Amino acid sequence: MNQTELTESLKDLPLGKISFFKTIESTNDLAGEWAGANVPDLSLVVSDEQTKGRGRAGNKWYTYPDSSIALSLLLRPPQYLKPELVQMYTGLGAISVCDALETKYRLSPEIKWPNDILLGGEKLCGVLAEAHWSGDNLQAIILGIGINITQNSIPLINNNHLPATYLEKHLTNKVIRSDFLKSILENIIKWRTKIEKPNFISAWEARLAYKGKLINLISTNNPIHPARIKHLAPDGSLVVEYPDMTEGRITAGEIHLRPIVDSDEN
Ligand code: BTN
Predict the structure, then answer these.
(1) Per-residue pLDDT tens for 151-189?
(2) Is residue 54 lining ligand 1, measured as CB closer than 6 Å?
């Protein structure tokens, strides 16, 4: 990919500024700098390589040259957005990537709440939605998406508990990254107007991994806690049932889900 190919392939979409880099530290960092500047809604940063890519909860995200899609999209939110709805933007990224995988490649991805996209139970893609505030004013949400496309996208050392996969492993043809990127952006543009509508939550919930299954919840103050995944609440938080049959609502924060393998409970 290069700036010309990218601009040409996205010319029919109502995007703001489009910036392509051969290499960058993190596309989310650059788009984050745009948040407080006079940069229009739907401005896009794409890079072929990231040297300081970031994932959720301070994890590193690796983007090697010619192997992946790394994008950050600047979204100017509505005038007022309840802070608890910021997590809906993680869902926006996840649903949009899933839609693109389903319609373009006939695949069946799942969303490991809140931000991982799985193919065959392995991690293909991560979403990192970051809100930029000026006092009480939400300036922008930066929607960062990283997708493994070729075998070279997989880090040699995987510090994630889930094995990683890449898109071409699930296809017979090579992926044209600019085409796939276009499809993702079309879906984001479509779905962003539906945030807070019931069919947004049902689209997210329909792809929820481990639904009805027992998983472990891991958080800093409560290291391991088994729970069964029930459904999504209208604000995008995860509703679970604990072994004592009480219900809990989890917001994205610092919590992680771990599938429980080889369990009769599943
Ligand atoms: C995760 O799985 O924890 C989220 C990974 C998000 C990675 C993307 S790649 C483009 C954008 N720039 C970054 O530094 N991170 C996001």
Answers:
(1) 999 988 776 678 999 999 999 999 999 999 999 999 999
(2) yes
